[in-house]
Amino acid sequence: MDGALHNVPRCDVRNIVAKVDRLQRLAVFESAGRLGSFSAAAAELGMTQPAVTRHIRSLEASIGHTLFIRTSNRSRLSDEGAVLLEAVSEGFDSVERGLERLDTEVETFELATGPSMAQYILVPMLDQLQGAIGEIDVRMTISDGRRAIDHNRYDAVTQLSPEPEPGVSREFLFPEIVVPIASPAVAKQLGLDETSSPEDLVGAPRIHEMQGFREWMSWDGWFRINGVDLPDRQRRVLFNNHPLVIQQAIAGAGVALGWRFLVDQLVADGLLVHVGQPTPTGKGFYLTWPSGASADRCQRVARAITKYTSEIDLTSGIEVEDLPVTTDRNDALR
Fold first, then answer.
1. 127 and 74: one domain?
2. Domain count, the chain
3. In terms of domains, do 115 and 13 share one?
4. Chain segment 247-286, per-residue pLDDT in tens
5. With contact defined as beta carbons under 8 Å apart, do 222 and 154 qualify?
6. Is the dihedral of CA 244, 245, 249, 250 positive or negative?
7. Full residue range of the structural domain in which residue 79 is found
8. Which residues contact 28 (CB under 8 A, 6 or more apart)?
9. What is the enclosing helix (H) or strand (E) of 89?
10. What is the pTM of this model?
């Protein structure tokens, strides 16, 4: 055992540890300096006055500075002692604040998700989500999808078809199905409904979304999957997240691509209608989490999300398994 310890590489220690071999002496010094008396420090610390004196002298010897000016009947801080007392006091205050935070820290479940999942599913089902997580705080972090997610920073993450990763568990939530949507007024104006073909949408005003760090299905990709060649690209207005696209669709700006289960409640509420056939991509949304970390809680969260989305399922008798599977782009948060 001793031989193994001798072989451990030595690291540079903090200067304070190198100079002050017993850090308790700093506490004794702080008390004496703050109270202005060795006797008062002894009473506060439950020590004798000679013991306080020994600690102060040892500290002075170790750092090479005189900390107190001693006279026949009292001691006062030297200039060097005043400098050290200010620094030590600030350090002790900082440590005490940290200890207070530890004492008041509450357990938190941190969930990273995309803006659409948050706005259209997780926020409306907060009561169910809290019930699945339990009597702890829930912190929801919204990712813009423009950078990869570090699973080590979160208790769980909602993702679209994440690649299998060592040390990361996942549970299926619902399939990815893309469907054209529009406000009822726009659909009526353009003569579109749920039976409209992709060719019917070629001339429709379309709302576009910017791509993130991984590409989402665009209108170009959707038409390509459905075997339609578009004319030369026209100028576009692009929005940087899906909720903005949906807001524009509700406002009557044109036709947008919607993600089933994410926009189903808006359709159920009559704010949007389908203006084309649903296109499943063969992918799905998942809840992922670091393996072994709160697995039971994460599985309860996944089941709660699945139950919530199934209650607003608007497939109208369409079986997901019976729909043609298409794939055109990579994976990401939504």
1. no
2. 2
3. no
4. 999 999 999 999 888 888 899 899 999 999 898 888 889 9
5. no
6. negative
7. 2-104
8. 41, 45, 47, 52, 55, 56, 59
9. helix 79-104
10. 0.60
